Structure formats: C-alpha cells, structure tokens
Structures
1.
Amino acid sequence: MKVFRNPQQEVDLFRSRVVVAALVVLAAFAALAARFVWLQVIKHDELHQRAEAQRTALVPVTANRGLIHDRNGIVIAENFSAYTLEINPRQVGDVAAVVDELATVVDIQPRDRRRFKKLADELKGAESIPIRTRLSDEEVARFTAQRYRFPGVELRARLFRHYPLGEVGSHMVGHIGRISPADKERIERWSDAANYAGAEYIGKTGIEASYQRELHGTTGMQEVEITAGGRAVRTLTLTPPVAGNALRLSIDIRLQEVVERAFEDRRGALIAIEPATGDVLAFVSMPTVDPNLFVDGIDPKVWEELNADPDKPLLNRALRGTYPIGSTYKPFLALAALETGKRRPEQVINDPGFFMYGGRRFRDSNKVPLGAVDLHRSIVKSSDIYYYMLADDLGVDTIHDFMKPWGFGQITGIDIDGEMTGILPSSEWKLRRFKQKWYGGETISIGIGQGYNAFTLLQLAHATATLANDGVVLKPHLVKSVEDAITGEQRPTVPKESYRIPVKPEHLRIVREAMVDVNISGTGRGAFAGVPYKVAGKTGTAQVIGIKANEKYDASRVDERHRDHSLFIAFAPAGPGEKPVIAIAALVENAGFGARAAAPIVRTALDFYLLGRLPEGMGPLKSDRMPPEAASSASRLAEGSAPAGAAPPPASSPTGAARPPEPRP
C-alpha cells in the first residue's frame, strides 16, 4: 500500500515542536532570571549579611581595667599583658589526652590541671578554658611551631590584673576573678549589661568589687575576617575600647604596710582615719592573703587550705568582725554621764575592787581597789566599778540612745560592700530578738563594753574619729577621687559633713584631757613612754568567754583562742589647741591586756605617720617605690601640715596599660 507524505503537516509539526522547545527554553531562562532577581535584588541585603557573617566576625575588645593608686600615687593595682594557652572543649575529643600532649611542649603543673578542671566544671559551655597562663616567650615559640598538632587549642593575648604589693592591703583592695554564672545573672540585671560582652573577669571583693563599674571601662568592638575554620586572618574595622577610670584612694599604703608588719603573725585589725575628712588612712585585717592568687582562678588545693586555716585569712576582720570592745567604750560613756547630768567631773565614788548587784559580785579587772575615783581618774586608771555604777544609773535605753549617733551598732556607709551592723543593745532589741524583757543586771556589763555589745572595729574607729573631730560626723571612705580615663579630670568622692552630735565643748575637753593622761600616767603609759607628741588614748580588754563568779582569770590556763582581746583607741596630736590628724582603733585577737599588744602597734603607726619613724629592725618597705613627686608621710608635725595636703598622684595614660600583644603567627 502506497503511503503519501504530507509535507505541510510535517512542517507544522516541526514548527510546533520548535515553539514548544523555545517556550521551555524561555521559561527556563525566565526562571533563572527571576531567581537571579530574587537573590541579587530582593534578598541581596539579607544574603550579603549572611555571607559577611560567614566571612567576618564581631569580636568584643576588653578595655583595660582602671588603675588603683594610694593617696600619694603609689600603684596598688595595675595591668599587664601576657599570652594564655586555651582549650575549646567542644573542638577537642579527649581533653585529658590533649593536656598530656601539651605538657610535652609547655610546662603544665598539677596546679594548672586542678585549676583547669575547676574552671571546666564552673564554665560549662565556654568556648575556651585556659590551661596555662602567662606563658614565657620561649613557651610561646615552642607552641607556635607545633600548633598544627593541637586543633582546638589556641594561643590568646590577654590582659591580667596585678597587685605589685602582694598581700599588703589585700582585704581593702580586694581582687578580681572569672565571671561565674551567679555573676552573669547579676550583670544581666544591670543597665549597662551590654558593656560586659566578652568580659571574663569582674571585681569579687573590696574596692575592686564596689567600684566595678568605674574600673571596668567601655568594651570596644573589632570586625575580623575569618577562615572557614574560624581563625581570624585580618582586622577589617576597630572601635577601640575605653579604659576604666583610675581610683585614687585615701589610704597611705606605706602606713598600711608598716601596721601589717607590726602585727607580725597575730590576728586582728586596725583602722586609721583622718578626723577632719573621713579619709581612711589604713584599713588592716590580719592575717592577709595575696590577691594575685585569685586573678587566674585560684588553685583548688590552695583554696581549700585558705578555708581550712583556723586563722581565717579570708575574713575581713576590719569590716565584718564583731567584737565586744571592752574599756574603749568608757570615754563615750563618760561623755554620756556628763551630757545627761548623771555625773559631774568632780563627783567621786569609792572603788573597792568589786560591785554588788542582785547578789552577784562584779569584779574589777584592776588587781587592787582604786579607792576614791572621779571621772578623770576613772578613764586614766580604767575603773570598772565606776562604769558598773554609771551604767546602772543610766540604764540600757539611755546608753543606746546616746551611743547610736556615734555609729555604734550602725552601718557607717563606708564605700565597700559587706559591712556588718553589729549589736547596740536596748530593751526593745532584746524583746524583738529573744522575746524577753531586759533585766537590770544585764546593764552592768554594758558599762565596760561587754554583755550584748558587739561592734565592728570600723564602728569603733569611726566613733574615735568623731570624738577627735569634736562630734562632727563624716562618713568614712576609702576612695578619695575618681580620675576620668579620657579627660583625666579628678572627680572627688569625699562626702560632706553628715551631721553634728550636740555635745558641750567643755565635756569633750574633760574626756580628751583624761585620754591624754591615759598615756602619761595611766594604763597606756608603758607603750607611749618618751613619745614627743601629745596623744589621747584608751586601753581595752574584752572577754571572749565568761568566767564563773569568784573565779580569777588566768590566761595561761585558757585555750589561746578563748583568751581576752586586746584593744586600743587613740588620736593625735592631742595637746591644747591642736587639731588631731589621725584617729586609730586597733584590736589584737586573744592577746590580753590592751596596753600589752594593741597599744604598741598603735604607737608604731603614730610614730610612722606623724614622724616618719620606722621601728628598729623593720627593714625596707615594699611600697618604698614611691614616685618622686608624691608627698612623703614623714614629719607631718614638723611640717605643720595635715596629711590631707598630700600631693595628687602623678598623671597616667588614659588606658592605664599597654594594649595586649597581637597573637604571633
């Protein structure tokens, strides 16, 4: 059968196929064009940001922490740069094996391993944890040459806090440490929480903690180009950080060191205040501890040893210790007697060596009866009987109301955190605390600073400074001024007068004269024999445990930590018409009679501060690296100028320290 072809039909079919193919091609190109427009136009900004995010990273740049100087310009806290070796646990399989391998390249001690384990437990999820800090140049070179062997291990440049005087003033200055989860929660509640991006350290105690926001500075930001593996290759942009503000303290660090050395291995505290300003000149708590131990993260073994130490070196005794203050309370009670009219200066009582109340015999700490005692002699010879009777006549609530404005049992408001309130007892306090009424017999011991009385040494020093300042109250403070890191402007932090206690000048004069006589013919005469200036003082001996009636106290038969505390208060110069420039309260735990232990330490402090005289055999001070332009503590009486006139600290650079070195390739 013959088939006839239809050329026109074949042409039409071919044309239709060409049209379909063209339409498919056009549709494909249209789809590509649409996708191109979608990616390159509509989604351009978003995709550009994603690409840049994979190519670049924003890295916070930590600011240099502000420096801390004493009143004369001596650096107490500074910064330095060094390299650390850090491990990213998420990029390392067997961390222990990597640490062992690293130990063949750099020196890794057991304490480094213990600290690394502690940090790993505390900082779960952290991108990097240091295994070694402060590497030497030789160690940096050795690791850099073999870096390829250790994926997940990085060499980083860090700024470190350093306390050049070590243990000197550590309870006052405090220390920094790594930011803990609790710290993070606290920072999140701050208005400037964003400023802590990338921050690893924060002030933990003392001034470092209380002035954290002043010292921290402003975090910078660095945009860097990174490889696919996340390693930075170059910096694209940099917003530099602004260093933290510098602090100028009221502390005379040389005086601080002299006092700490005078304590030797004894436990206790001493606070010295400039009465006219509230400047704290020395803030001593003994024993002390080197704050440099905490900067990199303290070795857990060392931490356990510090906590287990029976001497409690971590306790800030000057701020948080509460004690009965013994006979140092008597000058204030004498003022209360004069102000309330319960005693006249010339009024005499008989001191037979004991006081009977409710069938109980209250003994005098003096070994022999003093006989006729007026107010002056009651302070000079420290008659307990006089103050037993006086307390009974005044009553606990009158004593409470008079002592409260002097700061006993009250927060002073000093500019570091953690201050304890203590106890200034009253009938209302006992009812609230124990749900019991006050008994008259409980008032007797209050008269000699015992019983329920429990005050901080800071409160005693504050009250002594107020007494030296004729009843004018100024809030004690440790930071004298803040130096702006950018402008260098000094911003004073010294508070103005808080209030005045309405006491008659003649009553202050009577008590002051008696306190001067304490160190001439009274209980403090041995410690202040030959002193070339007038000094007002009062000894104190405070019981730690009670003793039975009719039983004599024998320190040799009592456990050392149950023996009496030794106290002494003083201010100088205290001659007629002289304005005291320093007031001191000192306590030596379990050291017995106040004149035996506390008074000699106070004498050492006064001799150094007023005369520039060091005790024989003390040797050079760590803080003798005083800058030439700083004022000397020496011979203040001879110069006729108060310590408040000391020269300001020398100008320092806004950053306070050099920037950390760039990581080596």
2.
Amino acid sequence: MAVTKFLPVDWSLTDEESKAQGRITPSQERAILLALSQIGYSDGCLIADEPGFGKTTCGAEIIKRARAWRRVLLICLPDTHKQWVERINAQSEGIPDALPPRVMNGTKAGKANYDAFMKHEEGIFIASSHFLVEKDWEQRPEWHHDVVGDKVVRFPVFKRDRKTGELELVARAEGVIGPAEEPVRQMKSTRLDRFARFSRKPLDAVLFDEVQVIASRKAKGRQTIYSIKAHFRVAMSGSFFLNKLENQWSVATWVWPGDDPETGEPWIIPAFQRWKDRYLLAEAVRGRGGKVLTTKYGGAITQVTGERIPGEFVSTLPAYIRREAEPVPEPLVIDVDPTPQQLAQIQDFERDLMIWAMSWTGEEAPLVADIPLVLLTRLRQAAIAELSIGEGEVVSFADDAASAKLAPLRWLLEDRWGGQPAAIYTDSKIGAHFIERRMRRAGVDARAWTGDLTKPQRDEMKHAYMAGEFPYIIATVQSFGTGLDGFQTRANKVAWISRPQGNSALVDQAIRRFWRPGMTQQGGGFEQAVLRM
C-alpha cells in the first residue's frame, strides 16, 4: 500500500483534526521550524517527544525543507528503515532534486550504498548504529610478549587442550605454540576509526532516531557516532537519557559540540564532572560500617540522587522540544498465588539457592543460582511457571508446567476483554514461548515475538497481526519497546505476565506501543492488567 504524503499544516486545526485530514499537525510544525531555525546558529536540535507524535514525519520534513543539505546520515533502528524510506519518499514527492533514501546494511545493495557513503556521494544514507559500530571496530587477538635469548616472541594468553577441551594459561617459557594445538586467543576490540575522513569533509547533517543508544558516555557506539562529523545534528527520543539523569550530558554534547556565538562559551560544559557538579545532586556510596567507597585513585564513589533544580539543564538547551502524551492509566492488578509446584521452587531458591528440577531425560537434576542476579532471574522465571531443565542443560518450561498465571490470563482475554485483540508482555523469552505453546494447545492462535525473530519474520508477524489473522501477540518487553509503530490501531488491551526490574524506561516504551495517539477505541478503550505474584 502506498504511503500518503501529509498535507501542509493548517494552524486553525487541532492536532487531532489535522491527523483526521492527513495534515502535518501544528505541534509537528513547531518542532520542524525549531530545528530549521538552528541552522547556522546552534546547529542542533533535540526532539524529545514521547511515542506517537510523529518524529518520523518531523525528520522527513526537516530533511526536505533544508534544501542545501545534499549528504545526510539518518541513524535509526533496523525495524524502522522501511518506515523511514516510505515517509521520506512520500514527503519528497514532486520535488525534482529530492535526495534519494539509501539504506546501508549487509545486503548487496546495502553494501553498495555504504561504499557510496564513504565516497561522499549525495543522498540520505540510512543505517543502524550497530551497523556503523561494526564498521568502526574489529575484534583482534591480544598477544603477550616475552624475550627468549635475543628474540622477542609473541604468544596468546590461552590454549585449549585437544583431549580435554579445557583452557590453560600459556606458560611464559613455552613461547609460541605450534599449530597442533590451536590456541584460543584473548581478544580485544580495536578501533579502526573508519569515519575519520568525515573530519575533512563533514556531512551536511546527521539525524539520530532513538538516540538513547548513545546515552551512556562509556558506550562503544558513542565513540563511533562522535567520530562522524557533520554541520548539523538532530537527536530524537522520548527517553533520551533512559533512567539516568547523568546521561543527558552524553546526548547533549553530541548534539551541540560547538560554542555559543554570543558568549564564545561551549553550549554544553565539556567536562562531565564539572557538568555533573553543576546540575545534579549526588551522594557518596558507602560500604560496610558506613565507610565511603573510593576509586583506585582515592576519589569517593558517588551516585546521582536527583537534579539540583528539576528541569534546569534542559531549559538551557538552545533547541529542545518535548510533547507528552496523557499519562498511562493505572493497571488493573490481579494478585496470583503460586501453584504448589511453583511455591516449592520459589521457597527452595530463597532458602538454598538451589532446586531440584525435572530434566529432559525424566530424572531430577539440581538447578543452582550461585549469584544474586541469577537468583533474581530464577525467582522471576519460577513465578511464571514451574521450571525444568531441558536438553543441553538449558533452563526451560515443560509444556505441562504448572502455572498459576494462565487461568487469570484466560479470564482476562476471554471474559473481561471478550476475545478482543490484545498484547501479552513478559520479560522472559522462554516464558513467551511457553505461553504461546499453552495457548495453542488450548486452540487459541497466539504467537511469540522475541529477539530471536529475524527482521523478515518480524515484518511478516506484524503484517499478519495487523491484518487480523491472529488475536494475541506475546512479546518480550526487551524486543518490543522501540521502533514499532501502528500496533495501537489494532489493540488497546495489554496483559503483563512479568515486567523487567530496574528499567522503568523500557516498561514505559513497551506500554506506549499501544497507549499512544491514534489508538483504537474498541471494546471500552484502553486497559492494562498486571498479573502479580
């Protein structure tokens, strides 16, 4: 189906009226004009809209109207490449010298587009941040050196015994290992600095959708993206600093690396610690006995507890805009008692850090949680269903595993929601596949969406779901949080089997796949329910 070009803004209409007429909304137009107003001034803009306000449309319009831009890089998630190409083509329809969108990826055409990008050809080059990082970094063996006589020899850190298959540290006296025992080398990431050439011939602009990818100042991807020089930058994300206030610095210094022409001072304080001291509150981390923990250099280790003045930093940014959706309605909470089998496993884990689980051979085997993080994971899995040990010693759920959450889930889907299309969220991949199998055994067409799906498989499943071929999609929160549009027009009911801990941004992004502008109003409107154990 062809994508329709949005008509120009009509300032007399509301956003909802504009959408009904297929027009650019007034709030979108304000974001577009704000970005364009920064060309030659701050040369950057941060669009921090929550999902559903049309950042893709804004980005396509910014590129179209900045007619002097002939070499543009658009960084976005692979799942949104097609969406961006369609919107750019639609908005540029009828413009004789419009730039062509050129996707860079691992396909033959994508590789050719990458070669053209590196040769500074014109176009709107579209790539994922992961693709760019892969081009900029390489895994190389790390060698250690020794002196034998008057020669310097190199040897890898580990070798593998051909009989036992175990790794052994290489003794210094052994020198170089022969080919009979192929060594297992210690690897390290080596920066290739592939994009240094853009220092001499900067791009006209870089637009970065879901810019939270480089939120961490220590991320490898941040180094790569920073090395791609451009005259103008646009960052887009409704959660650009994720859960950490200190991440604001990382994104802002990418958007505005230069100086304020009026003051001659940097737009953003370039030293992270000085910026942190200026805008954030922090307290020392204390260990046993209340002693302040320190770094190896003797400085106190601190953690951020808030902002000195809430919202102060973003208020200093030269071009920042944020549109917020209505708050997500509070969920219906259904408390679920574990089955006897689940309760026994949970209590054993809490007491012994170990349970006896049925293995795929039909015999009981020990399943040990030897560190707190693994213990938390196992407890959360056991709250979904009774755990087993599958073939290859992999933790799994048997098809007939006892689960206390399936009955209330069925009540939600069939009785309360009357068989309407719905999404079922969990933070467990094996949990998603388990629920899919159990629902299919009950004659219900439900399909699991996890990180294992390839892009063509995701496209096929989305098309089938949107076309009404099946009513229930079971998604892991981690694979469904960003880069997916349109699902709100199909479903407005969401059931939570489990939610990831410590990442409220991920949970918020996932629920806003369905609670967002344009959502269907069928069956009494939006509702989410949490099955809590």
